[in-house]
Amino acid sequence: MNHIAIFASGNGSNAGKIIEHFRHHLHISVALIVSDQPQAYVLKRAEEAGIPWAVITREELREGNLLVDLLEAHNIDFVVLAGFMRMVPKQMVERYEQKMVNIHPALLPSYGGKGMYGDKVHKAVIAHQEKESGITIHFVNDVYDEGAIIFQARCPVYPGDTPERLAERIHALEHLHYPRVIEEVIQSVSGD
Ligand code: GRF
User: Fold this and answer.
1) Position 182 pLDDT exceeds 90
2) For a surface tag, which of 102, 126, 162, 164 has the fewest beta carbons within 10 Å of its beta carbon?
3) Local structure of 139: helix, strand or coil
4) If we measure between CA atoms, which residue out of 38, 32, 31, 42 comes closest to residue 8?
5) Active site residue 74
6) pLDDT digits 0-9 by tens, 35-62
7) Would the CB of 103 count as within 6 Å of ligand 1?
8) 192, pLDDT greater than 80
9) Could you say which of 104, 122, 138, 177 is catalytic?
10) Any idea what the CATH number is for the domain that residue 99 is in?
11) Based on the structure, what is the number of domains in the chain?
């Protein structure tokens, strides 16, 4: 069995879709939900699904070995970042090299990097009058949004779009693709 940990800071709609996708899977299970925000709705989703969860402190984020210890205590093989707003410590990047993925709500390498998150991304895409945007799923390395790209999907940006409308379109793409792409990556690294 491959055990996934999902890291999320907020609502966790992607986490919810991933939990659902793997609920009856034979080889992959969501074994832990981690958040840096004690009030995050994603923790309620974990509770409802009966999945163990943990809130990590600033100290654990700074002192990366503590976080690696937590993940190893839960036998975590693969890490999924889904709306996690903090940089993960380098010890975790090293331990889960090629075994940690992130999703970004734009077509990297455009509209990525430090400060480019949430609505800021969609506002910038609209301000630059882009005709399309999309999602990028990539491996995590120690630089913001610069790990190897695994998958991208595109959607149109319409004249008069608001960041909220574009965000909805992007979320729909994320929900459609992220669980399946995670499954494919895990199957290709584990051979299951
Ligand atoms: C997603 O749009 C993701 O691309 C970004 O954060 C958002 C998280 O949304 N990194 P949710 O918490 O899964 O609803």
Assistant:
1) yes
2) 164
3) strand
4) 42
5) no
6) 999 999 999 999 999 999 999 998 889 9
7) yes
8) no
9) 104
10) 3.40.50.170
11) 1
